[in-house]
Write a structure and sequence with these properties.
Strand order of the largest sheet: 1-2-3-5-4
Helix content: 40-55%
Order of helices and strands: HEEEHEEHEHEHEHHEHEHHHHHHHEEEE
Distance between the termini: 151 Å
Largest sheet: 5 strands, mixed, barrel
Number of helices: 15
Shape: flat
Radius of gyration: 59 Å
Length: 423
């Protein structure tokens, strides 16, 4: 009887199994509003996603929650991706969130970051492309709305700081769908207007209000302008793509005007100080030159110019004397060597050298005659050879050996018949 009744656990597990194996529930995209948001100490997010008629519990584990670029809060419109499953302890179905975006504003943030990354990788933010703002600009272009606080702040700041500067307003749309094209058009006109610097700005607002200054077409136009551009969009905490591309970024439109022009009184004071330093520098140079001139005019050489010539004359005499001494020494040494050669016996009687050489030659010939082996043959001696090798001992021969005996007037071929050793 009891077999047909299921436990609550068994039923919950069966429902969980069915939901977990439903492919349509493994990747679900929902949009709604956050309520009952709670951030656990371990980093997990627990909240409810609701719309006008329904709600669903949601959990985002810490490894996914740590990737978010914003902090969720109650009332926030969101877009989520996740899977549906059942929490067995309560039997409630819920969505396990893997990704979360802010709805509307969140999409703009994503587009902002994507364009920022793209242009940054292309080098549009590189400092090497930043143009220097002129120190004393005389023609300043202003691209902003013709009405509102921004244009008033810019004009009043420039007039207060540097009233001799000429300002030219290029009124344009700064909000809405048509604003980006109007900004590009006015940048193109201003860039060809012979200006020293251009201020591009508007007052604060939401990210949607400031979005024309985040458009790629506007950023690329700012980068391509040959005139230096100062970006002053929004408030201090606001950043737009134009801020990164412009040559200088100011926190506000007023700050942009301050970056564009100097303070006239400070500039006049600097000119006055430079004039004073220049005057003092010229005075010091004149005084130093006067002292040098006085010192030169009082110098011994200038008063007695011949003294310089006399010193040179004396040095020349010393050099000539040294030269003559060296020449005489060389001539005397050469004469002495010549006299020695002329007085030598060889020079007077060159036959003596020949006779000495002849005597030495005859003496060497006599020695060679004594050592000549042919002379020994003339005296009755002979030379015995075997196989063209001289025999100096009977031990070098044996019976039947063929030998050659050389005498003074010929050779004898013989055969050894007997070998006798001395006793």
């Amino acid at each position: 009887m009891d077999d047909k009744y299921l436990s609550v656990t068994a039923l919950t597990r069966y429902i969980k199994y069915k939901i977990d194996n439903d492919k349509n529930l493994q990747e679900v995209y929902l949009k709604g509003e956050i309520s009952n948001f709670k951030a656990h100490t371990r980093g997990h997010f627990y909240f409810t996603i609701k719309d006008e008629n329904s709600r669903i519990n949601a959990i985002m584990f810490s490894f996914n929650a740590s990737k978010l670029k914003f902090i969720p809060e109650d009332g926030m419109k969101i877009l989520v991706k996740g899977k549906i499953s059942v929490f067995e302890s309560t039997g409630n179905y819920q969505i396990y969130v893997s990704e979360m975006l802010e709805d509307g504003v969140g999409n703009l943030h994503i587009a902002f970051e994507q364009l920022k990354k793209k242009l940054g990788e292309e080098g549009l933010f590189d400092p090497k492309y930043k143009k220097e703002i002129p120190k004393i600009p005389m023609r300043v272009g202003i691209i902003t709305a013709s009405t509102g606080a921004a244009v008033k702040d810019i004009l009043s700041t420039i007039k207060r700081r540097f009233p001799i500067c000429k300002t030219i307003l290029f009124p344009c749309l700064v909000q809405g769908e048509l604003a980006k094209d109007d900004i590009v058009k006015k940048l193109d006109i201003a860039d060809n207007y012979d200006l020293d610097v251009i201020i591009l700005g508007r007052g604060g607002g939401s990210i949607e209000d400031l979005w024309p200054f985040n458009e790629e077409v506007v950023a690329r136009k700012v980068f391509s302008c040959k005139t230096p551009i100062i970006s002053g969009v929004g408030h201090q905490i606001d950043f737009t793509i134009c801020d990164f591309v412009a040559d200088v970024r100011a926190e506000t439109p007023t700050g942009a005007a301050e970056r564009a022009v100097p303070i006239l009184t400070d500039l006049l004071l600097e000119i006055s100080n430079n004039e004073a330093r220049l005057t003092n520098s010229v005075k010091r140079i004149l005084e130093n030159n006067k002292l040098r001139l006085k010192k030169l005019s009082e110098s011994y050489v200038l008063k007695n110019p011949l003294s310089l010539y006399e010193i040179k004359e004396q040095k020349l005499d010393n050099i000539i004397d040294k030269l003559n001494t060296c020449m005489n020494t060389i001539i005397y040494t050469s004469k002495s060597k010549l006299e020695i050669i002329e007085n030598s016996i060889i020079f007077k009687n060159p036959n003596i050298l020949y006779e000495n050489k002849l005597k030495k030659t005859n003496h060497l010939i006599e020695k060679l005659e004594i050592l000549n082996p042919l002379n020994a043959l003339k005296r009755g001696y002979s030379v015995t050879k075997k196989d063209d090798i001289c025999i100096s001992s009977v031990n070098d021969l044996k019976i039947e050996d063929n030998i050659n005996i050389m005498l003074k007037d010929g050779k004898i071929n013989a055969k050894v018949m007997e070998v006798l050793h001395e006793k």
